[in-house]
């Protein structure tokens, strides 16, 4: 089965255009599944052709006994389901043994985000004229202005950013391309950063990374997180938040200001509108809070 798993991972990377991070996660989950099957069946030679529902149910039951989180079990089941469907398409299995298996119900967690005041305080906390601070300010402004994912921002090249049209060309999940507007505040911060960068590293070419670290090479995800953590500390925000909180803030504040859900979904690069609908709960809860505080007959 190892050979078929390797083929499936190659399929995810080359045909489905999954990110290296996602492919690595699938690899870990399927390696654990294979290790379980070897112990469960008492043999190192596990054939993909004899994969059945009983074995997969046994795997899920083992995960539950190990007290894995429901979200973790669902993720691992998704990996097995994807692999099983691949085997059917390749003619290795006649029927998909995972067809009737459904994910566990989980408590829906709503994303953490910044209020408008918190977002302003975070951005204004990043001051200074050295390249590190200019880069930090520009990235935070762009996260909040355009709702980019971390991988999308770190993957930007100079040629993807159009300062005259105030837009950025983004390659999202599955290498799907989209154009996203950039606000004037973010554009000003990016212009200041690019001027500082040119002073230190010289003029940037179109194919060069837009955001670079101290060595002039493409900035790493962990470096972005470190800069955001420093900004949070300066802003007096003790929460442990990542760039995704700025993406959530972008969507929530756009919705609160009257933007339609379809436009927000397009800007976020969501394949399904249902993914974007989670933000409607946040805005409704906020409206309820305002109503309780302001209406004379709200009961508060």
Automatic annotation (TrEMBL):
Segments forming a coiled coil: none
InterPro entries: CB, DNA_brk_join_enz, Integrase-like_cat_sf, Integrase_catalytic, Integrase_recombinase_N, Integrase_SAM-like_N, Tyrosine_recombinase_XerC/XerD, Tyrosine_recombinase_XerCD
One Gene Ontology biological process: DNA transposition
Active site, per annotation: 149, 173, 244, 247, 270, 279 (o-(3'-phospho-dna)-tyrosine intermediate)
Subcellular location: Cytoplasm
Key words, A-Z: Cell cycle, Cell division, Chromosome partition, Cytoplasm, DNA integration, DNA recombination, DNA-binding
Record-level GO cellular component terms: cytoplasm
Transmembrane spans: none
Keyword Cell division: yes
GO molecular function: DNA binding; tyrosine-based site-specific recombinase activity
A Pfam family: Phage_integrase
Domain of life: Bacteria
Domain (Tyr recombinase): residue spans on this chain: 109-292
Known role: Site-specific tyrosine recombinase, which acts by catalyzing the cutting and rejoining of the recombining DNA molecules. The XerC-XerD complex is essential to convert dimers of the bacterial chromosome into monomers to permit their segregation at cell division. It also contributes to the segregational stability of plasmids.
PANTHER family given in the database record: INTEGRASE_RECOMBINASE PROTEIN MJ0367-RELATED (PTHR30349:SF41), PHAGE INTEGRASE-RELATED (PTHR30349)
UniProt subunit comment: Forms a cyclic heterotetrameric complex composed of two molecules of XerC and two molecules of XerD.
Record family assignment: Belongs to the 'phage' integrase family. XerC subfamily.
Name the UniProt record assigns to this protein: Tyrosine recombinase XerC
Originating organism: Candidatus Glassbacteria bacterium RIFCSPLOWO2_12_FULL_58_11
